[in-house]
Amino acid sequence: MNPKPATILAVALALGAAAPAWARLADRLAESHQQFLENRRAALPGLSDPFGVPAPARVVIEDPEEKFRSLGEWHRGITATIFWVGELASEHNPTPNKASAWDQNWLANYGGYDDPDHRNGLLPAAFIPAQNPFYIALPYNDVTSGGRHRPEAAEVIPWFWRDYRGDGISVCKSHWVAMHCRGVVCYAQWEDVGPFETDHWQYVFGKESPRPNRNGNAGIDISPAIRDYLGLKSGESVEWRFVDDRDVPDGPWSRWDRTDGLPR
Questions:
Q1: What residues have CB less than 8 Å from 64, skipping those under 6 apart?
Q2: Residue closest to 192 by CA, chosen among 83, 118, 108, 59
Q3: Is-contact 158 225, C-beta < 8 A?
Q4: Measured between alpha carbons, how far is 205 from 22 in angstroms, rounded to an integer?
Q5: DSSP 8-state assignment for residue 2
Q6: Mind listing the domains of the chain with CATH numbers?
Q7: How far is the C-alpha of 237 from the C-alpha of 202, rounded, in Å?
Q8: Which one, of 85, 114, 87, lies nearest residue 191 by Cα?
Q9: Is there a contact between 204 and 139 (Cβ–Cβ < 8 Å)?
């Protein structure tokens, strides 16, 4: 049976009235889908890094004119002069060495006069030292005469905060250095300040040369034991650099404990 014209007309009118509603629904679906996609894109970084791991470290290219040396960088062509515990003041040694910059009883604590002319091997002939006979002086004191650290000390000394034990307690005393001369390397501890200067951090920790002085612009004082081990004379050149305790190999310099000075 064929539908009546009136019925067909009613259906057509109903569909025509529903068309705008379907269009609006389609628009809302499209808008919701677009919003979903945008939210998803915004969430992707968090999904790929749910724990908030920091971004990879940036590679920093250091300025070749940087004023500080790295801990293990060598100071080359440095004039070395000989000094010793108990040395009296003279033209070339204006400060007597009965005391050091950090030990007012250095002569007594060392055990006696470290005679450079009368030796028993690498040791003084008259006694066995109570402290390491491989010692040096460098022209920087991290502690002022007022008993406080210099203002720049925390910034220029690489190991300052690692070894810090309180204001006025030197972090330089007893730090290790390596020295090289003509293919021979030895190790020693920093036990005094000099030659001549007490504040030249730009050389000790930086890239400056030692300041001019009447000892041939010397930049390091070395003990008789170092002199004899390296086989050099006062006024000759050496290379030196700082080293950490863990990097000091066994040798005649390592038989004395850093803290109490007693032979091992």
A1: none
A2: 83
A3: no
A4: 80
A5: P
A6: 1-60 (no CATH), 75-247 (2.40.40.10)
A7: 19
A8: 85
A9: yes
Give the whole-angstrom CA distance, residue 200 versus residue 57. 34
Strands 75-82 and 220-222: parallel
Q: In this predicted model, what pLDDT tens digit does every residue of 208-225 receive, in sequence order?
A: 999 999 999 999 999 999
Average pLDDT for 14-41: 68
Concatenate the DSSP letters of all residues of 133-168 into one string.
S-EEEESB-SB-TTSSB-TTHHHH-TTHHHH--STT
Query: Whole-angstrom Cα distance, residue 60 to residue 22?
Result: 60
Q: Are 219 and 185 in contact (CB under 8 A)?
A: no
CB atoms within 10 A of CB 88: 9
Q: Helix or strand or coil: residue 93?
A: strand
Look up residue 72 and give its two tokens.
């293990």
pTM of the model: 0.72
Strands 176-181 and 237-243, by their bridges, are antiparallel
Name, in order, each residue with C-beta under 8 angstroms of 172's C-beta and a sequence gap of 6 or more.
Answer: 102, 138, 140, 141, 142, 157, 190
Q: Helix or strand or coil: residue 14?
A: helix
The per-residue pLDDT for range 72-103, each reduced to its tens digit, is 799 999 999 999 999 998 877 778 899 999 99
Token pair listed for 255: 């038989």
Dmax (CA) of the chain: 138
> What distance in Å separates the CA atoms of residue 152 and residue 135, rounded to the nearest whole number?
25
Burial 173-210 (b: 16+ CB within 10 A, else e): bbbbbbbebeeeebbbbbbbbbbbbbebbbbbbeeeeb
> Hey, what amino acid is at 207?
K
Rounded alpha-carbon distances, angstroms, from residue 44 to 32, 33, 36, 40, 49 = 19, 17, 12, 6, 9
